[in-house]
Specification:
The structure is a single chain. 25% of the residues lie in helices and 28% in strands. It has 163 residues and is of the alpha/beta class. The strands form two sheets. Strands 1, 2, 3, 5, 6, 7, 8 and 9 form an eight-stranded mixed β-sheet that branches. A two-stranded antiparallel sheet has the order 4-10. A hairpin with a 5-residue loop joins strand 7 and strand 8. The longest helix is centred in the N-terminal third of the chain and has 9 residues. The termini are far apart.
């Protein structure tokens, strides 16, 4: 049986396949509020290389995606300043789900329901490989971070606050 048959099919992995992007899979036992620290330890990955996908909105309730190191927080003030917004805040879980099409804890920037601008913490692009949610809870995909800017069209920003 080919490796292809073992891969989990989610809107995110479908998107990666459509764009011919190779990815490595890691699954783990999802726990509510376990976050990227759980994903990192369960999969044996450096926490800084596990990237969280956050759905936020600006003052006009326009949704956006921010990709951040798992061991850092987003400075919404710095993010707003860099994207010419008055302010940015996290969406409520129900709204994030409507915007992305994914359950919170299983949000991927690939294959989202709504087209949203994507921003990526610039230091993520300096890593050799990152692990990011593959479209369901307890599922990470390892990819080259250049995919984020070159294929997904993410715009680099500097808004990390160490956790």
């Amino acid at each position: 049986m080919s490796k292809e048959k073992h891969q989990s099919l989610t809107p995110a992995t479908q998107w990666l396949k459509e764009h011919k992007i190779p990815f490595e899979e890691r699954s783990y036992e999802y726990e509510e509020h376990g976050g990227t620290a759980l994903a990192a330890s369960a999969c044996g990955i450096d926490h800084h290389h596990v990237i969280k996908t956050l759905i936020m909105e600006d003052e006009n309730a326009k949704p956006l995606v921010i990709l951040m190191h798992g061991d850092c927080e987003v400075s919404t003030k710095n993010l707003a300043r860099q994207i010419d917004a008055k302010h940015v805040s996290p969406c409520k879980p129900e709204q994030a789900q409507r915007n992305s099409g994914y359950f919170v804890g299983g949000t991927s920037p690939f294959g989202t329901k709504k087209h949203m601008p994507v921003y990526v913490e610039s230091s993520i692009l300096e890593l050799d490989k990152i692990f990011i949610n593959g479209g369901r809870r307890g599922y990470q995909v390892g990819i080259d971070p250049k995919v984020l800017t070159d294929v997904l069209g993410a715009k680099p920003v500097n808004c990390a606050n160490p956790d």
